[in-house]
Amino acid sequence: xxxxxxxxxxxxxxxxxxxxxxxxxxxxxxxxxxxxxxxxxxxxxxxxxxxxxxxxxxxxxxxxxxxxxxxxxxxxxxxxxxxxxxxxxxxxxxxxxxxxxxxxxxxxxxxxxxxxxxxxxxxxxxxxx
Length: 129
Known about the structure:
Blueprint: H1 2-8, E1 24-25, H2 31-39, E2 44-49, H3 54-66, E3 74-79, H4 84-94, E4 102-107, E5 110-116, H5 122-128
Parallel strand pairs: 1-3, 2-3
Antiparallel strand pairs: 2-4, 4-5
């Protein structure tokens, strides 16, 4: 039943999750150096999202509904349509194959966890940090 609720939820219903996750927008290549630095103190999660893909939208919504690790991880959001250059650099710098949607966990400057599509799971992310 929750699957259908997540698909058909109106935007007004999602307002209850606004405070659950506060995204840092990833919009500049220089931020990747910042992410590496931050990840030495606290793991960083990068959510790569395609604004043109309904599967990506569903994965994002599900992740946002389940996310409760803000005390353990710093979340970054990448609109990969607008910032494909950053997405490409993430693949190169962290040695991960590009996917969309994709969740990458960076710890001590390295990608230690990388999942895409239906494997994106906020609870599993919480266990990895």
